Amino acid sequence: MHDLVIIGCGGFGRESADVVDAINRSAPTWNLLGFVDDDPSAENVARVRRRGAALLGGLEAFSSRGRGVHYAIGIGDAPTRERVASVAEAAGMVPATLVHPWAAIGADADIGEGVVVCAYAQIGSDVSIGRHVHLDRASQIGHDCAVEDFVTVHPAAVVSGGCVLGPGAELGTGSTILPGTAVGAHAVVGAAACVVKDVPPGVTVKGVPAG
C-alpha cells in the first residue's frame, strides 16, 4: 500500500477520504496517513477526529518530510489547488489519482494525475482529463471532451459531448453544458445554468440560457 495524505480537511477533503475508503474496500491500495491543512476550522478538526483520522499540520511543515508520499488535494478553489500542487511537487511528493469504484469510465479515457473522481461520476469514451481535476458525485463528462487542469465539476453537472473546459473552470451543481461548447479558463458556470454558447475566460454566467 502507498502512503497518502489529503491536503485540506474541509468538505471535499473529507469526501476525498471517502473515495479512498471505497477504493481500499475494493482493493487495498492506500495507507491514509491523515490530513494536511494550514488552518483547519474547529468544526473540521472535530469532524476529522470523529472519523479517526490524523491531522498532520500545515503543508510547509509536512512537505519537509513528505518526499515520496502520495497526495490528493481536497480544496475546491482552483488557484489555491494550483499553488498547493506546486508546493507539494517541489517537495518531492507524488500526486495520487483517486477514482471511486462506483464511477463509470469509458473506453480510451485519459485521466491525469491528482484527479479525484467521486461516486457515480461518469466519464465518456475518448475523454481527456487534465491534472488535479475534481469530478464530484454524479457529475457527467460526455464523449470526446477535453477537461483541462484544475477544473472543478460540482455534483450532478452534465457536460455534453465534444466540449472543452479550460484550466480552472468551475461548473456549479446541476449545470448543463450543451454539445461542442467551450468554457474558458477560470470561468464559472452557476448552479442549474444551461450553457448554450461558448463562455469567455474569467466570466461568470448563470441562468437558462446562461449569460
From TrEMBL:
It comes from the Bacteria. One of its GO terms (molecular function) is transferase activity. Pfam families: PglD_N. InterPro entries: AcTrfase_PglD-like, PglD_N, Trans_hexapeptide_repeat, Trimer_LpxA-like_sf. Keywords: Transferase. NCBIfam families: NeuD_NnaD. This is Sugar acetyltransferase.
